[in-house]
Amino acid sequence: MRSDAPLVVSFLILLNQARNARHVIHPKLSPRTGGDRTTGERQGLARTLGAILVCAASLSALPAQAQDSGTAEALFKRGLQELDAGRLEGACPLLAESFRIDSRPGTLFTLAECEAQAGKLASAIAHYSDYLQLFSRMPPDQRLRQQGREKIAHAQVSRLAPLVPQLIILLPANAPEGTRVRRDDVVLQRPSLGLPLPVDPGEHVITTQGPDGAIRSIRVSIAQGETKRVVLAVDASPPAAAVPGAATQRKPDAPSTDRAPLDRSRSQSLSGQRIWSLVLGGLALEGLAIGAVSGAMAWDKKQIISRECSGNVCSQEGKDAGSSAHALGTVSTLTFGVGLAALAGAIVLWTTDRPATETKVGSVRFQPTVASDGHAGMLGVRGGF
User: Fold this and answer.
1) Which of 185, 214, 264, 309 is 20 to 30 A from 107 (CA-CA)?
2) How far, in Å, CA of 153 to CA of 131, rounded?
3) 154 and 193 fall within a common domain
4) CA–CA separation, 319 and 345 (whole Å)
C-alpha cells in the first residue's frame, strides 16, 4: 500500500503559506511595511499557488487510483485461481487485464508463466523479457522481494526461444503502393515484411487491404519451431478509371442537379482557419464574461471603500476592500483586453477564409477594414450579397 500522507501534509503547508502571503496582492495597503513588495516575493507567491494547484490535482486523482488498484487486485486473484485450476484460456486474459490497469512486476511475471503453460511461446518470451527489464531498474530492496523470479525468467527465455515459430510475410512485387497488411491485431509496416517474426504456435489471420479498400484474409497455421514463408496475393490492377464522356450521357433537356449538392457538401466542411476562428470566438466570450463579472465585483468593493475610508485613512474592512478591488480591476482589464483581441481575431479569420469551391454568383462576401488617424483606430467588417 502506498501512503499519501506526505502529499496531504505538503498541501496543507502550502495552503498555510499562501494564506500568510495574501497581503502581497495589494502592496500599498500592506500593514507590515506600507511599501511595495519586491518582485521576488510576488514570484514566490505565484510559485506557492502553482504548487497548491499541483497538489490539489494529485489529491483529486487518489480515489481513482485506489479504485483502479482494487480492480487490478481482484482480476489478479481471479486469474491466479484459474491458473491454479489449469483453466489457462480464462487465466491469461484476466492477468493481462490486471497488468494493463496496474503495471506491477509480479503480475507481469505471472502472466508470462500463464502464457508459457498455454503454449503462447512468443508472448511468454516477450513478457519474461519485459519483466527482466523492470527487474534491472529495481532498487536492491525491491529486488529481494522478487524471491528469485528473475532466475526463473532467464531460464524460461533460454528454454522457450528455440521453440518459438517464425513467420515471414511477403507482399508481391506488383502490390500497389499503400497496401496495408495486418497479422491478427497487429498492423505490419513495410520494414516488418520479409523478416522472420516470432509468433505463437497455432492459427493466425493475415489480412491485406488495397488502396481501393478491398480486403482479403487468409488463415495460416504454424507449429512449434517451424519457420513458414507466406506470399500474399493482392489485386495489382488499379481502380477503374472514369470513362471519358460518360457524364454527357444525360438527356440534353434534363437540368443538371448533381453539381449543387456537391458544392453544398464541400462548403459545409470547416477549414482549419474557420475552426481557429471558432476557438478564438469561444475564448472571446469567456474573456468578456470574466471581465464583466470581475468588473462588477470591483465596483461593489469601491462602494465599501467609499464608506470605510476617509482621505488616506481606512478601516481594516476598507483596506481589505481596496486590496480586492485592485486585484479584481486588474483581472477585469486583462480579461476584457484578451476577450476583445480574441473577438477581433475570430472575425478576421472567419471573414477572410474563402473555400476553393465558393462561387461569386449568389455568394456573401465580407472584407475586414482597419482605419486609424494616428491617435485612435477602428476595426470593422464590410460586405455585400
Assistant:
1) 185
2) 8
3) no
4) 39
- Residue 168: count other Cβ atoms within 10 Å of its Cβ: 14
The reply to whether 13 and 156 lie within a common domain is: yes
Q: How far apart are the first and last CA of the chain?
A: 69
Kindly report the backbone phi and psi dihedral angles of residue 381, in degrees, each rounded to the nearest multiple of 5, phi listed first: -135, 135
Expressed as residue numbers, the domain containing 186 is: 165-231
Q: Report d(CA 221, CA 230) in Å as an integer.
A: 11
Q: Helix 5-20 crosses helix 39-84 at what angle (to 10 degrees)?
A: 160
- Give residue 151's pLDDT band: very low, low, confident or very high (50, 70, 90): very high
Number of domains comprising the chain: 3
> What's the rounded mean pLDDT across residues 78-96?
95
CB 159 within 8 A of CB 124: no
3-state helix, strand, coil in the chain (%, to 5): 60, 15, 25
- In degrees and rounded to multiples of 5, residue 215 shows phi and psi of -115, 135
Across residues 111-124, what is the average pLDDT? 96
CA–CA distance, 275 with 350 (Å, rounded to integer) = 9
Q: What is the CA radius of gyration of the chain?
A: 35
33 and 144 inside one domain: yes
More confident residue, 260 or 120: 120
User: Does residue 280 lie in a domain region?
Assistant: yes
Instruction: Classify residue 378 by its DSSP letter.
Output: E
3-class secondary-structure state, position 208? strand
Closest Cα to residue 109, out of 156, 159, 158, 161? 156
Residue 151 grid cell? 532466475
Q: Minimal CA–CA distance to 166: which of 191, 192, 138?
A: 192
SS3 160: helix
Query: Do residue 97 and residue 134 come from a single domain?
Result: yes
Q: Is residue 248 part of a domain?
A: no
Measured CA to CA, the distance from residue 173 to residue 171 in angstroms comes to 6
- Is residue 222 scored above 80 in pLDDT? yes
Are 55 and 10 in contact by the 8 Å Cβ rule? The answer is: yes
Question: What's the pLDDT score for residue 283?
Answer: 79
